[in-house]
Amino acid sequence: MTGFSAETLTLPTVALATLLPFAAFVVILLFTRSRPRLSAAVAVGVSSVSLAGTLVLLTLHWNMEKPVQHTARWLVSGTIEIGMGYLLDPVSLLMLAVVAAVSFLIQVYSLGYMAGDPGFSRYFAFMSLFVWAMFNLVVSPTMFQLYIFWELVGLSSYLLIGFWYEKLMASQAGKKAFVMTRLGDAAMFLGILLVLLHLGNLDILEMDSPKAAASMSPELLTLSALLIFGGIVGKSAQFPLLTWLPDAMQGPTPVSALLHSSTMVAAGIYLYERLYPFFLFSRTAMTVGLAVGTVSMLLASTMAMVNRDIKQIWAYSTISQLGFMLMGLDAGSLFSGAFHLTTHAAFKALLFLCSGVFIHRYATNDIFELGRQGCRSLKIPMACLIIAAGALSGLPLLSGFFSKEVILGSLAELSNPLWLGAGLLGVFLTSYYAFRLVFILLFPGESGPGHGEAPEASAPSHGSAHSRFHEWILDGPLIVLAGVTLLLGLFQVPLEQFLRGGEISGLHWPDPLHHPVLPYVSVALAALGLGLSWVEFGRRGAPRVGFVERLPGLFRLFSQRWYLDHVYGFLVDRGIDRGISRLLYLNDHKVIDGFVDGTAESTAAGGRITAFLHTGMIQYRLLTTFAVVVFLALYFFL
After folding, report:
1. Would you state the pLDDT for residue 220?
2. How many domains does the chain have?
3. Cα dist from 603 to 593, 615, 616, whole Å
4. Residue 567 — very low, low, confident or very high, per pLDDT cuts 50/70/90?
5. Quick one: what percent of the chain has pLDDT higher than 70?
């Protein structure tokens, strides 16, 4: 680019890419809401410009040697200054490209999926708001700015999850997501305040530098890291705050794809990457993160094994894979988490969008019903689903295989083999539930298992026509994502070199060791899971009942989400309804009402006495006069 330097182009490109989605949100709500086609054109056009801008930034700074930061002073209080601006380094640039690419493809897909919906313009307005919030979260140079857009991402997700608000379940799912993520966000806010009080600012690069370790005691560092990690647990639906994400599938399927692939839940993992050096200062916080990721990965996998709602299965899979990313990060490998986040964005978006085609066509989420209605006749979505399921399972040559092997390699470096064993168990469970779904769709039987009720459809209620144009719009993004899923693993080395090129604050991470046997073990376990699912659901004469379903107690445990919702219900009932609510009731009725009622009764009694004393009845006055005369006579004469 003759006459232009990277520094000259960076600021306008960042501004254009991150501000245009908000402009699209405002324009659609205020001016084009009554014109659906124009609203869609504005949203998709802006998304394409943002994608081009992020690719320009990625190209300009591919060989960057240090982070590029630009901030303007926004708030000043005493010696504390808080700025707003942008921070570009390999971690943020890679995430920015992922968010822009996936959100663009999903919005193109939405042109076909949401066609004819009464809220078509409103949908694209909310999508633009969502993308704007996520873009600005990714480039935030301070934790204060990041927290603002962190909350805006939560607000946008609430609006999109409950998009079909006329459905009670969708409305409840949106509220559940909003409330449960607020629990983690409250902890995160306290952690940010601790850092501000002791470090003096919220600059991310300073938090990641040795200055933070020098300014804060080890105990305070651990407490701050754990509180901030609470926000990650809530946003990324990790244990114990994981039950809101499967219920969030009540929104449109493109929304589910966006939430699970590159935004919302992925924001938690991105924050962990963003503050990775800060978390490294506390070994305790890293161990807690490793334990939470492991438990989340295994619990969600077991829940997916027995579910029959196609979108909820992929939702549990997302929880499991995010936990797997946390395991890699806490094992000491920044690249493993970032790489798997990137590959996961492609194949998880592909899984949801393929499922959306089936739901859009057959108006059901039940995998057994989808199989019976012949979804395998949809060649392109079915082929893409198989590719994505293979990548999710870690089958060789697919992108998920390469990123999972990096995580398993980092787990193998830990002194305790328990973590590696849990990771390998997760590989087996993931392959089993992924291909259980695939074989049920490919080889439908006469009837499915009788456990549980068929899930309610989350297809659009407008019943849009299946024109050839709409089918092409739905299939196009699938083909692109399938190609990325097939090829992305080949870019492992360039991506690793890119991420290591801009290491923050001089911190260096050791090169991962090569474990020649480990890939064969993981592939064997993935093949074992695939084979078991084939025996139970794919082969001719298969019982179409999983081994877990033959164990009623275990099946009940998994299908009831390990009774986590029951625990939350008990805590809400005893802690809020019978505890806090009871105290508030007593305070209202005994203290507040008692004081008001007592004041009123005292005033009324005083009025009655005063009225009695001022009565004009002659009898009482004569009686009083006679009594006084009698008492005076007795006093003087006796």
Report:
1. 92
2. 2
3. 15, 18, 22
4. confident
5. 90
Q: What is the pLDDT of residue 512?
A: 57
* Domain termination site, one of 539, 559, 579: 559
Which residue intervals of 114-207 are DSSP H helices? 120-138, 143-161, 168-199, 204-207
pLDDT per residue as tens digits for the range 460-514: 544 444 556 667 888 999 999 999 999 999 999 999 888 876 554 444 555 556 6
Given the structure tokens 């989340």, which residue do they identify? 296
> Which residues have C-beta within 8 Å of that of residue 407, sequence separation ≥ 6?
324, 325, 327, 328, 331, 333, 336, 337, 340, 423
**Buried b or exposed e, range 434-452, using 16+ CB within 10 angstroms:** bbbbbbbbbbbeeebeeee
Tokens found for residue 635: 């006093």
DSSP state at residue 376: G
Same domain, 468 and 591: no
Inform me whether the pLDDT recorded for 309 exceeds 70.
yes
**3-state helix, strand and coil shares in percent for the chain, rounded to the nearest 5:** 75, 5, 20
Pick the closest to residue 126 from 244, 254, 249 (CA basis). 254
Pick 570 or 401 by higher pLDDT: 401
Q: Are residues 93 and 239 in the same domain?
A: yes
Alpha helices by DSSP H, 2-35: 6-27
Residues 6 or more apart whose CB falls under 8 angstroms from that of 404 comprise 324, 340, 394, 427, 522
Does residue 326 share a domain with residue 203?
Answer: yes
Of 332, 204, 192, 321, nearest to 269 (Cα)? 321
pLDDT of residue 614: 64
Condensed to tens digits (0 to 9), the pLDDT of residues 342-400 reads 999 999 999 999 999 999 889 888 999 999 998 888 999 999 999 999 999 999 999 99
Domain with 465 in it: 6-559
Q: Say how far apart CA 197 and CA 225 lie, in whole Å.
A: 14
Q: How many CB atoms lie within 10 A of CB 69?
A: 17
**Which amino acid, one-letter code, is at 519?**
P
Asked if 302 and 451 sit in the same domain, the reply is yes
Task: Tell me the CA distances in angstroms from 176 to 187, 231, 237, one per residue in order.
Answer: 18, 16, 12
In the block, residue with structure tokens 């639906």:
237
Residues 542, 628 share a domain: no
Alpha-carbon distance of 139 to 141, in angstroms, equals: 6
* pLDDT value at residue 253: 85
Q: What is the pLDDT of residue 509?
A: 55
Q: Supply the angle between the helices 218-235 and 168-199 in degrees, to the nearest 10.
A: 160
Cβ(557)–Cβ(549) below 8 Å:
no
CB hemisphere CA count around 419 (13 angstroms): 27
Burial zone of 379 (CB within 10 Å; 0-12 exposed, 13-18 middle, 19+ buried) = exposed
What is the Cα 280 distance to its own chain's centre? 24
Domain match, 290 and 372 both: yes
**Does residue 68 have a pLDDT over 50?**
yes
Given a cut of 80, whether residue 451 has pLDDT beyond it is: no
Q: Which residues contact 278 (CB under 8 A, 6 or more apart)?
A: 207, 208, 212, 225
| 104 CB-contact burial (10 Å; exposed 0-12 / middle 13-18 / buried 19+) | buried
Q: Give SS3 for 116.
A: coil
Residues 313, 401: one domain? yes
pLDDT in tens, 323-345: 999 999 999 889 999 999 999 99
